[in-house]
């Protein structure tokens, strides 16, 4: 029933965007979002559906949701059920790397065929407006003085926020094992804890806290991008002398066991979609950074990121080595 | 611009014919999906997002708000008629509502829930318009220790759902608490009681448990009793509409339910379930007809229904003022805002007053539409009960299974549903109350993670629970609620001795 409605929605988009060019090919794709409707992966999948159809890259795209355990349930089903199928893809991202390691998943990201990294979201560290901490160095000093007394609020255990807190502690020379990280379910609850002054610092995706930062209720003490974001007056950690670069990336992968031709077709299709106006429009609306990285370069990136994240999770004791 | 002028301006936006149409589509869709267990308003909004992308922002947000309110209405219909809560917030409604329906009083039950929802929704929307900035300051000060204290109050008061025997009630509660442990521990990321089954890592879904225990358990129980002489169900006994007496017994619970629902819904981790339980137990204590509770007391329907609708309006407080989504549907509405480049938050009221006030005004309109849509349907709905039992229960089984599969397409989920169905049957057979199981599953994990968060923040010092004034007050209330019955009983004995 759900798949049926997803198809309906797809059809409705095709109708709404009647401008779809006539060069529509025979591609009929199935796209899995290994999460419940509404989250980042689901929105990425549905945005892809919209852009793939609107740009004429695919004739139809059907989105299915397989929620559970940071994508562990979805990827298991994807690897086993879609093996060798060149018309299926799955959205994933940073969080899945950690989730698979923590859940001791029998299926790993090495088994899937990497297609492309699509977007990334820069992370931000904030403190309440009335906090004595003004810069990332102030926080670093507090962390070095007594790491247990500095409380970080962020999203789920082992997610990108948690990894970032650990990396921050490591980068300023403290023992990451001792960080006092308090996971909240969803940005809403953690924001309340930060605004209410219950914790020392908060960590989240930049877009999520942008309104609060602009209105002056939160002070941003650092962003995790390589260079300062254009038009923003928030300093990066790097320019404050702290080596902390991390982004919450989202990507798309294909099943294992597909032929090189099938892989090329999918890689080309995604590349074409990324370059389409429809996709650019969506990125602008959602405030996602374009972080396209295709083919083998993405495969390399995925491998390196997996090692980095797993190491951090081992260091904070979430993954037993 | 003061609030009245802003609201009047919002009304002008909301009554534009196109926006009225969107509101109508919204409430209709919302009612429809609310009736189906498993398919909630969140999923509906998610599916509609890409479709509405070309519409104007005001119109589609109005439609989403209609879906949200409609979902809250629809969930209660199935809870009352076939004991299948469409979403977990309707669970408390099922307790008395279904008993009323079986006694031929389905009409008044549906009516009190529709009118109660209307009253609560309207009052809460007024609250949203006038109190939002003040309330949100309060909500943000609510820390983990305060949530834990609130959970303590909830735990103490849910004993009202226990039925007659506290031991049986506690047994049920602990089954629920144990089920609540299943899955990844939120604070350490480690799996508990998942036995290596990946589908269990996210824990037990509340709707799966509720539908299994209530609907499936009931169907099995009814089937097992068929040879013991068939229970005759009369769809209508007495008046189809609420009598004067019904009105008299309903209006206070409506207001009290609203008082629970709106502020708790506005808390970032409040939710819709807790106020419904609190309202149910309050009504049970205050009623003049305690003998009717457990057999179909109208107060037990009126209060929780008002509470769950008021909490829906409450959820919009942090969403509009802070950009904080505190429920799945609110998160989807946030995505809806973002798709138009709008960021709900402290600046939204200043930047796009037309949109915000248009949305608030359309909530009033959605509420009126829901009442108009639902009241005439009452007569039609109760006819459902005239369907011969084997057909009706077969239908319920199909319905329940379909809803579960739609929400989570997996064999494990389906097996759990069946397992909970058998559990529900056995509990009915041996006279254990089933509501505390669901209560335990909902409250247990919240209480646990909030307590652990509070302790992590205070570096392990339990005194944090007493240092926060909110927490200390709530714990005091919990203690009072726990001791009061014993003290009163003691006094009663004392008096009896004197005579």
Automatic annotation (TrEMBL), chain A:
Any Pfam family: TctC
Signal sequence annotation: 1-24
InterPro entries in the cross-refs: BUG (IPR005064), Bug_dom1 (IPR042100)
KW Transmembrane helix (keyword) present: no
CDD domains: PBP2_Bug_TTT
Keywords: Signal
Keyword Transcription: no
Family per similarity comment: Belongs to the UPF0065 (bug) family.
Name the record gives this protein: Tripartite tricarboxylate transporter substrate binding protein
Native source species: Bradyrhizobium frederickii
From TrEMBL, chain B:
Keyword Ubl conjugation annotated: no
UniProt keyword list: Membrane, Transmembrane, Transmembrane helix
Regions crossing the membrane: 20-49, 61-82, 109-135, 147-163, 170-188, 200-223, 316-335, 355-379, 391-410, 430-447, 468-488
Key word ATP-binding present: no
Domain named DUF112: residues: 20-438
Coiled-coil parts of chain: none
Leader sequence segment: none
Name by which UniProt lists this protein: Tripartite tricarboxylate transporter permease
Organism in which the protein naturally occurs: Bradyrhizobium frederickii
């Amino acid at each position: 029933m759900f798949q049926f409605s997803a198809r309906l929605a797809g059809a409705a988009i095709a109708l709404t965007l009647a401008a779809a060019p006539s060069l529509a090919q025979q591609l009929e794709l199935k796209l899995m979002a290994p999460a419940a409707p509404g989250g980042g992966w689901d929105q990425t999948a549905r945005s892809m559906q919209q852009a793939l159809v609107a740009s004429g890259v695919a004739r139809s795209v059907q989105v299915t949701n397989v929620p559970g355990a940071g994508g562990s349930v979805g990827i298991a089903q994807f690897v086993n059920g879609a093996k060798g199928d060149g018309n299926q893809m799955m959205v994933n991202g940073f969080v899945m790397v950690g989730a698979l390691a923590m859940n001791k998943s029998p299926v790993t990201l090495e088994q899937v065929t990497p297609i492309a990294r699509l977007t990334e979201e820069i992370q931000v560290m904030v403190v309440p407006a009335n906090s004595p901490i003004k810069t990332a160095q102030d926080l670093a000093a507090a962390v070095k003085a007594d790491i247990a007394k500095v409380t970080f609020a962020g999203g789920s255990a082992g997610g990108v926020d948690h990894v970032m807190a650990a990396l921050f502690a490591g980068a300023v020379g403290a023992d990451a094992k001792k960080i006092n990280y308090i996971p909240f379910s969803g940005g809403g609850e953690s924001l309340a804890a930060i605004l209410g002054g219950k914790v020392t610092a908060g960590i989240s995706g930049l877009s999520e806290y942008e309104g609060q930062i602009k209105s002056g209720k939160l002070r941003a003490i650092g962003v995790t991008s390589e260079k300062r974001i254009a038009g923003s007056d928030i300093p990066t950690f790097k320019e404050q002398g702290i080596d902390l670069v991390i982004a919450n990336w989202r990507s798309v992968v294909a099943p294992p066991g597909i032929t090189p031709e099938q892989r090329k077709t999918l890689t080309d299709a995604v590349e074409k979609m990324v370059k389409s106006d429809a996709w650019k429009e969506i990125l602008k609306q959602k405030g996602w950074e374009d972080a396209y990285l295709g083919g083998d370069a993405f495969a390399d990136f995925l491998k390196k990121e997996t090692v980095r994240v797993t190491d951090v999770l081992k260091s904070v004791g979430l993954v037993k080595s | 611009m003061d609030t009245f002028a802003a609201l009047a301006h919002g009304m002008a936006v909301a009554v534009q014919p196109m926006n009225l149409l969107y509101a109508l589509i919204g409430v209709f869709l919302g009612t429809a999906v609310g009736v189906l267990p498993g398919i909630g308003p969140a999923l509906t909004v998610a599916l509609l997002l890409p479709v509405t992308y070309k519409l104007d922002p005001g119109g589609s947000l109005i439609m989403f708000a209609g879906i949200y309110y409609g979902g809250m209405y629809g969930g209660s219909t199935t809870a009352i008629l076939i004991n299948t809560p469409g979403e977990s917030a309707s669970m408390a409604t099922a307790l008395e509502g279904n008993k009323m329906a079986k006694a031929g009083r389905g009409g008044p039950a549906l009516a009190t829930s529709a009118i109660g929802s209307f009253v609560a929704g309207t009052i809460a929307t007024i609250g949203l318009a006038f109190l939002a900035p003040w309330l949100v300051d309060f909500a943000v000060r609510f820390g983990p220790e305060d949530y834990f204290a609130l959970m303590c109050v909830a735990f103490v008061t849910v004993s009202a759902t226990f039925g007659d025997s506290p031991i049986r009630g506690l047994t049920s509660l602990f089954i629920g608490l144990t089920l609540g442990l299943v899955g990844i521990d939120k604070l350490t990321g480690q799996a508990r009681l998942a036995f290596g089954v990946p589908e269990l890592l996210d824990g037990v879904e509340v709707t799966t448990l509720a539908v299994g225990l209530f609907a499936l358990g009931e169907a099995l129980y009814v089937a097992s009793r068929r040879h013991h002489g068939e229970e005759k169900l009369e769809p209508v006994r007495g008046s189809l509409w609420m009598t004067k007496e019904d009105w008299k017994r309903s209006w206070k619970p409506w207001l009290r339910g609203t008082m629970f629902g709106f502020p708790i819904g506005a808390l970032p981790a409040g939710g819709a379930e807790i106020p419904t339980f609190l309202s149910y137990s309050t009504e049970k204590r205050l009623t003049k007809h305690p003998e009717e509770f457990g057999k179909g007391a109208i107060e037990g329907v009126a209060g929780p229904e008002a509470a769950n609708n008021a909490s829906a309006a409450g959820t919009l407080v942090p969403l509009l003022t802070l950009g904080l989504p505190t429920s799945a549907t609110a998160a989807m509405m946030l995505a809806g805002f973002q798709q138009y480049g709008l960021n709900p938050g402290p600046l939204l009221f200043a930047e796009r007053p037309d949109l915000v006030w248009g949305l608030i005004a359309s909530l009033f309109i959605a509420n009126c539409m829901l009442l108009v849509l639902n009241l005439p349907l009452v007569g039609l709905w109760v006819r459902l009960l005239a369907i011969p039992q084997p057909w009706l229960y077969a239908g319920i089984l199909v319905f329940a299974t379909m809803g579960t599969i739609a929400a989570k397409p997996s064999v494990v989920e389906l097996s759990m549903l069946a397992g909970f169905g058998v559990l529900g049957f056995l509990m009915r057979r041996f006279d254990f109350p089933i509501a505390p199981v669901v209560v335990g599953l909902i409250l247990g994990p919240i209480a646990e993670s909030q307590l652990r968060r509070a302790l992590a923040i205070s570096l392990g010092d339990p005194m944090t629970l007493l240092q926060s004034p909110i927490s200390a007050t709530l714990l005091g209330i919990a203690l009072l609620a726990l001791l009061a019955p014993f003290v009163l009983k003691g006094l009663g004995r004392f008096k009896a001795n004197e005579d």
